[in-house]
Q: What sequence folds into this?
């Protein structure tokens, strides 16, 4: 369906990229569970499709939907968030250098520093909240800046506009992993980024039932090059996954509003809790980049990071005691999760880097779901008590 340029997020979330099926009128995009498409004669295809690794109608609807939500011209979907990240790295050549945000998902750190480094791509970790550090790390070999904001797990906020302007000055590409914020809260392309990446496994999927990734861009050239990589490497999502995601994006705005509302209340509560040393949440006035978050995002998200009083034993006790907050990796689902980054999601980050970033034994990450917030607070209080 053509959604008008003035349609608001909730309308676009439900309608963009989707129209009733021309053969039946089915209002929902069908699961085109097919690998191939019959041709009238060799090379003479019937519609737009010849093979589902190259393109598939269910995936095309999802790619158009996500592109619309990020305000992008083009969208491409991948089998996971790291597959999407890897596709961007495949734009580079041996000898190129990347500036990577110092605080990123552990799997992203591993991909840059332990897979692509073996192919001659050098990664320098930089605090993306510090423009001087970015400028200082830049040289003529630098081709890409990759950052997350808010970061995983310490929720630092980088000024996308500022980093984009540094990137432009140096003729360097800027890719922003927008997984934590989602397109509902922040649109990095409108702030000057060249590529947006999502792990659709998280808020976009929203129900902890699929793994996926996406790349969005306004550049025809980048889109063509990334599409070629998608086709050639074949890390495409399954069709059922695409259907599930199309179902999920229809409620993204509603879910995100509740995630933000619940997280704000939980953060406020924990901020006054005697067993909690420190709460990091971009919505708290005590967050170092609170003002920037207010300007750059239209909500503060559902992720909270806390330092509890004590060490590993106390953290372990808390993670074992929560009942509603399930101890599990991942985030962004309707159900609340709790995890220990040093042991779980960021275990692959070298210990010295973890220490430098403050990913210590008493740091705990919460993905606040959309359950009743009083029940969530009670659950945390019980576990902390
Ligand atoms: O798991 P996958 O879909 O491949 O996405 C990787 C990824 C990319 N970017 C960010 C910001 C992420 O948080 C992730 C995955 N993160 C977790 C599994 C986690 O618990 O933090």
A:
């Amino acid at each position: 369906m053509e959604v008008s340029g003035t349609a608001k997020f909730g309308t676009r979330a439900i309608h963009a990229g989707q129209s009733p099926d021309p053969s039946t009128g089915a209002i929902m995009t069908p699961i085109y569970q097919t690998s191939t498409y019959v041709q009238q004669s060799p090379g003479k295809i019937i519609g737009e499709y010849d093979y589902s690794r190259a393109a598939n109608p269910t995936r095309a609807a999802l790619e158009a939907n996500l592109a619309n939500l990020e305000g992008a011209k083009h969208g491409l979907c991948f089998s996971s968030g790291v597959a999407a990240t890897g596709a961007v790295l495949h734009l580079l050549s041996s000898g190129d250098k990347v500036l990577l945000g110092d605080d990123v998902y552990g799997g992203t750190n591993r991909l840059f520093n332990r897979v692509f480094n073996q192919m001659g791509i050098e990664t320098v970790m930089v605090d993306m909240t510090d423009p001087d550090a970015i400028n200082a790390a830049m040289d003529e070999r630098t081709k890409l800046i990759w950052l997350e904001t808010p970061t995983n797990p310490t929720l630092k906020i980088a000024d996308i506009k500022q980093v984009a302007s540094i990137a432009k000055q140096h003729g360097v590409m800027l890719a922003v992993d927008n997984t934590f914020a989602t397109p509902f809260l922040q649109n990095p392309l409108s702030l000057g980024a060249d590529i947006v990446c999502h792990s659709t496994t998280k808020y976009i999927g929203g129900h902890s039932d699929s793994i996926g990734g996406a790349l969005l861009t306004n550049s025809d050239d980048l889109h063509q090059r990334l599409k070629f990589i998608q086709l050639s490497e074949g890390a495409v999502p399954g069709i059922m996954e695409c259907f599930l995601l199309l179902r999920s994006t229809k409620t993204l705005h509603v879910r995100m509003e509740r995630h933000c509302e619940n997280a704000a209340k939980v953060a406020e509560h924990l901020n006054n809790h005697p067993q909690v040393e420190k709460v990091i949440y971009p919505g708290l006035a005590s967050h170092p980049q609170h003002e920037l978050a207010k300007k750059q995002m239209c909500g503060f998200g559902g992720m909270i990071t806390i330092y509890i009083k004590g060490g590993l034993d106390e953290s372990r006790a808390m993670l074992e005691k929560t009942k509603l907050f399930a101890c599990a990796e991942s985030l962004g689902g309707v159900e609340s999760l709790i995890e220990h980054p040093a042991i779980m999601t960021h275990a692959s980050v070298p210990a010295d880097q973890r220490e430098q970033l403050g990913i210590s034994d008493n740091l705990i990450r919460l993905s606040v779901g959309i359950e009743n917030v009083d029940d969530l607070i009670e659950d945390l209080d019980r576990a902390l008590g």
